[in-house]
Amino acid sequence: MGRGFKPLNIRKWVYLFMSSLGIGAAASLLAWVVLIFINPPGESGGVAGVGYNIISVLLAGMLFSIISQTGFFAYLTLNYIARSIFRRPQLWIYAQLIITAITVTYLPFMFTEPGEALLPHIAVPVIVLIVAIAVAFWKVKLTNKSAFVPTVFFMSAVTLFETIPSLRENHFSGIFFMILPLLACNAWQILILGKLLSTPKSPSQS
User: Fold this and answer.
1) How far apart are CA 17 and CA 188, in angstroms?
2) Which of 59, 76, 138, 158 lies at a 20 to 30 A Cα distance from 52?
């Protein structure tokens, strides 16, 4: 996510697109299996509405992958513009921290009905934030310390915004079925980005 990277060429973009589709499909299949295990079809509170046809599950995962990729490229564009607007890079870091804090603490509660239990709504942002921090540490190992806050921002704030359709439905199975593929695809894209954008060294540089 630095300034020295070159744009993706067609081959790398196709690889990112296709691999993300595969991860989205696999993650949705995993989510479907977990939901069936927790609440078998026909039981109260089961996975009704998620779909029992494996093809529809895989297609839904691919759709979530496309949502994830749209959010990813939107974030890259936002990051590029913000770096141009903020004269001091540290200001953009602070802005991402503030937006992350507001999103995590407020967004999931926007769809809470009066008198409804808060625990499920607290669990969603907490789990997303834990995953975001774990992915950020991984990203730091792959790149450098400056990637920590942008990765947490993308993995938490952007993921929660992408999950708004399921948050509106306010149903555990729908939220879980959507958020798992989104987290998987977002993690894959942010972790593979540096490798895709880096320019291989020539023999004279090694």
Assistant:
1) 11
2) 158
